[in-house]
Amino acid sequence: MINLASFVCGLIFGLGLIIAGMANPAKVIAFLDLAGDWDPSLALVMGGAIAVATGAFALAGKRASSLLGAPMQLPTRQDIDLRLIFGSVAFGAGWGLAGFCPGPALVALGAGLPKAVIFVGALLVGMLAYELINRALTQATPRAQQGTH
Amino acid sequence: MTIDWQHFTPWTSLGGGVLIGVAAALFVLLNGRIAGISGVLGGLLQPRAGDIAWRVLFVAGLLVAPTLYGLATTLPEAVIDADYPMLVAAGLLVGVGTRFGAGCTSGHGVCGISRLSPRSIVATVTFMAAGFATVFVIRHLLAV
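YS: structure for the whole thing
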């Protein structure tokens, strides 16, 4: 059931991205282009999603396990560290360069767009590079890897 | 700044956002997890027993979405202006960045803000600012 729920959630998420216009990088860039002809649509995507999800997370926070009996695994970290800032700057820069963040890139890959193949390939290489860098950093400072995300 | 009313799509964007919210809500209530795409994907690169199938199936759902949508109606056009070298640079930055920053638009921007997580609010403000700045440099300073 957990696996079926995962598939259905991924599917609904993907359909939402397509309908919202997030799967079109040109529209994402038009949202990020404050100094040009600004298309504010994508602010409504985030607004709509947050409006719906807020209640569910409030409910989830009060439970020890999910409706299907899986342990409730919500992040607990509160600290704002350099990794969070550095990572978010790098992510935002990449997002602005191509107009793709991970979800829409996977949807575009599913649509068979050749440019999405290149982007997702580079994305996976970047994630693998993180694993190597993180391992090196963790060996240098053993307390670096704490918390679960 | 001028607002591009011609391309402004308030209702479909709001509707798509609501669907994304429904997916994130169902995911946490049914599976007890955050629907953060970079986290789901990244977990597949350090696979642990019993922690693989749900990730693969969530990604499969995303991959199948355009095909299912295309069966119902015409898939909207996706315009990708970036050339191949720029796509490689962008992919590497997004890959490294979302893993170091422990989240992307979905994990921090949707789920994290819904939970009022201070880390996610800081991350979202930071990556949005970096995105605005990058597009400004490329479009207006370098005029690519």
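YS: worth flagging: The beta strands of chain A are 37-38.
IM: good catch. Also Chain A has two domains: 1-74, 77-149.
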